Automatic annotation (TrEMBL):
Taxonomic path: Eukaryota, Metazoa, Chordata, Craniata, Vertebrata
Name of the protein in question: Acidic leucine-rich nuclear phosphoprotein 32 family member
Organism, scientific name: Sphenodon punctatus
Keyword annotations: Leucine-rich repeat, Nucleus, Repeat
PROSITE patterns attached to this UniProt entry: LRR (PS51450)
Role played: Multifunctional protein that is involved in the regulation of many processes.
Family of this protein: Belongs to the ANP32 family.
Region (Disordered): 148-219
Length: 232
């Protein structure tokens, strides 16, 4: 799908100034350039143009409020100085899978004072000796490069357990264990009640037997009335 047509579909009868997020992934750029996108998208904060066969960002319009720009899986090899001029408040830039080969190509990004995260996965520049140290030295405003900081600590937003799912799992496990313990206690109480009932039955049985003996013995003692030779 051509980029202009995709833009029309994404607008959905809205005005460009009402759009804050715009995804144009997998559409076709015109001769490797951005087309149809204008500075009328003045409130745009997130722009994604992944795998659109982009060769250059020279046609990127002025987007003062843009904070996150996704440009992975294109064929960009340079011309990044445009970003400092057109997107001065950029904080996240993804250039993974492009044709960036040299550290010097990234030098224009020094003019992006708010840039905190830069991704260069699958770019040739990542194969250079001391790549990470060189990029952090060139761009001191960076906090994360390829998802990790200078001390190799992973960025929080890339942690799959950051949303608290692990806590829910722990809660469920503890809850299950608590239920099992309660069930065990109930079973023990039931057994004690049954034992008490058995004891009461045994006592009742003994009392009944004793009662029968008491009734029989007086009859035996009266047998002398019938047989004089008998003794009680």
């Amino acid at each position: 799908m051509e980029m202009k047509k995709r833009l029309t579909l994404e607008l959905r009868n809205k005005k460009p100034g009402e759009i804050k997020e715009l995804v144009l992934d997998n559409c076709r750029a015109d001769d490797g350039k951005i087309v149809g996108l204008s500075s009328d998208f003045e409130n745009l904060e997130f722009l994604s143009m992944i795998n659109i066969n982009l060769l250059s960002v020279s046609n990127l319009p002025k987007l003062n409020k843009l904070r996150k720009l996704e440009l992975s899986d294109n064929r960009i090899s340079g011309g990044l100085e445009v970003l400092a001029e057109r997107t001065p408040n950029l904080t996240h830039l993804n250039l993974s899978g492009n044709k960036i080969k040299d550290i010097n190509t990234l030098e224009p990004l020094k003019k992006l004072p708010n840039l905190r995260s830069l991704d260069l996965f699958n770019c040739e520049v990542t194969m250079l000796l001391n790549y990470r140290e060189s990029v952090f030295g060139l761009l001191p405003q960076l906090t994360y490069l390829d998802g990790f900081d200078a001390d190799d600590q992973e960025a929080p937003d890339s942690d799959p357990e950051a949303d608290g799912e692990g806590l829910e799992d722990d809660y469920d496990e503890n809850g299950d264990e608590g239920e099992e313990e309660d069930e065990d206690e109930e079973d023990e109480l039931d057994e004690e009640v049954v034992d008490d009932d058995d004891d009461e039955e045994d006592l009742d049985g003994e009392e009944e037997e004793e009662g029968v003996d008491d009734e029989v013995k007086p009859l035996e003692c009266l047998s002398f009335l019938v047989a004089p030779s008998g003794t009680c």
